[in-house]
């Protein structure tokens, strides 16, 4: 494995009753002027908004609000949040929602302390040197944003969706109560599963020598996602399934299973280009792209795909070549997506071939992408074309 430094300071509160017992104490550690950031209203419909308001009012907290954070959060919304932080002298940002709300809050936290436009940081033209403290209450198991420092913001004017972060944007604390995901609709539950699975794949397919523990940890998370998604879809109030998926989402992207690995991340870069233009759900785009990426790269290291078939999907490898097992692994991945009802083609989102060239160029704007296999513009174009 590679040499590495691991750092993750987020305090995690997992399970039922943690918000009631510990939210006030965590929030007031940072002050009493709090910017509550949330999305399009799901937290109002399921009662979480009222709960948070009551707890914080009792603790003497003054709440300011930024609502309406979009899925694929927009830079314009981030700017609004930064303005509130400045005008209201905010002490802490509290993000209540899915990955989009958390990512928007991270951008606001960095932007409030950045001398210039926070978009510089996402364009790799600037670096954060500080951020306002941020806490989160997660309502959707998917991104892992609750325990990492990254976030993804869309500049809708320029049709760019870029990731960014800093050591200052780890949430100070995150509350993950699986009951808050009971109301996540079927499609978003599917997208969430596809996203966390994709994070595992991004780690699993890498060029780093000798990483047996990482391999088995990642396999365990993939297996657990595959085993529990259907149960959450069949019964959205299945606590055990929701809890397990939530824990998988956190583990898939908090750095714990991927230390010392050069993960691939090409599929994420490609998906972000699709979302940037067509505003599709991130997990849906990944479900479409990943099998095509696997077809495109399987010959780089068929053994890696073979272990996915045998160790995760329980395929009997006896008498089969790695190349045969690689094809079986890809078929198993496709079958899982099909079973849970994930999209399989760009056409499922009415996306045709007219912007493939633009998406391929933009995906490699900072250079070739991917580590398992380096992809140039032609590779990306081929993957997108195969995804139609
Ligand atoms: O806006 P509201 O009304 O809250 O509704 C949301 C939204 O419409 C709804 N939802 C969330 N929790 C709910 C709920 N509806 C009912 N009950 C609940 N408990 O779900 C919809 C989608 O929410 P969103 O936050 O967009 O989903 P997700 O968590 O999948 O986040 C996607 C965003 O995260 C980025 C993606 O690119 C995308 O922009 N990512 C962030 C990462 C990170 N920070 O580490 C890594 C990922 O790879 C990803 O790129
Ligand atoms: Zn993702």
TrEMBL record:
Pfam families: ADH_Fe_C, Fe-ADH. The keyword Oxidoreductase applies. InterPro entries: ADH_Fe/GldA, ADH_Fe_C, ADH_Fe_CS, BDH-like. Residues 9-178 form the Alcohol dehydrogenase iron-type/glycerol dehydrogenase GldA domain. Residues 189-387 form the Fe-containing alcohol dehydrogenase-like C-terminal domain. It comes from the Bacteria. The keyword Oxidoreductase applies. Keywords: Oxidoreductase. This is Iron-containing alcohol dehydrogenase. It comes from Alicyclobacillus fodiniaquatilis.
């Amino acid at each position: 494995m590679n040499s590495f430094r691991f750092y993750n300071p987020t305090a995690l509160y997992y399970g039922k009753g943690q918000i009631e017992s510990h939210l006030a104490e965590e929030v007031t550690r940072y002050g009493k002027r709090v910017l509550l950031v949330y999305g399009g209203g799901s937290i109002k419909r399921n009662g979480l908004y009222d709960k948070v308001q009551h707890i914080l009012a009792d603790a003497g907290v003054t709440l300011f609000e930024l609502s309406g954070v979009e899925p694929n959060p927009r830079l314009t919304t981030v700017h609004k949040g930064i303005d509130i932080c400045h005008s209201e002298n905010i002490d802490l940002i509290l993000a209540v929602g899915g990955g989009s709300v958390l990512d928007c809050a991270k951008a606001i936290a960095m932007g409030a302390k950045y001398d210039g436009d926070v978009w510089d940081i996402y364009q790799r033209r600037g670096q954060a040197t500080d951020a306002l403290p941020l806490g989160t209450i997660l309502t959707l198991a998917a991104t892992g944003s609750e325990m990492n420092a990254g976030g993804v913001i869309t500049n809708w004017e320029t049709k760019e969706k870029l990731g960014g972060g800093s050591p200052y944007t780890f949430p100070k604390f995150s509350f993950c109560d699986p009951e808050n995901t009971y109301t996540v609709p079927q499609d978003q539950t599917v997208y969430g599963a596809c996203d966390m699975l994709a994070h595992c794949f991004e780690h699993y397919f890498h060029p780093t020598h000798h990483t047996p523990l990482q391999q088995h940890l990642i396999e365990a998370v993939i297996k657990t996602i595959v085993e529990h998604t259907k149960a959450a879809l069949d019964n959205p109030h299945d606590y055990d399934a929701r809890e397990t998926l939530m824990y998988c989402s956190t583990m898939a992207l908090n750095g714990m299973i991927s230390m010392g690995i050069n993960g691939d991340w090409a599929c994420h870069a490609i998906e972000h280009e699709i979302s940037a233009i067509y505003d599709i759900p991130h997990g849906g785009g990944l479900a479409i792209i990943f099998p095509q990426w696997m077809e495109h790269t399987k010959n780089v290291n068929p053994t890696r795909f073979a272990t996915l078939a045998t160790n995760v999907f329980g395929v009997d490898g006896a008498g089969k070549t790695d190349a045969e097992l690689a094809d079986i692994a890809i078929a198993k991945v496709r079958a899982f997506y099909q079973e849970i009802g994930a999209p399989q083609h760009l056409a499922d989102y009415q996306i045709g071939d007219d912007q493939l060239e633009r998406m391929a160029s933009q995906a490699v704007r900072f250079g070739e992408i991917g580590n398992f296999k380096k992809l140039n513009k032609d590779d990306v174009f081929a993957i997108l074309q195969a995804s139609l």
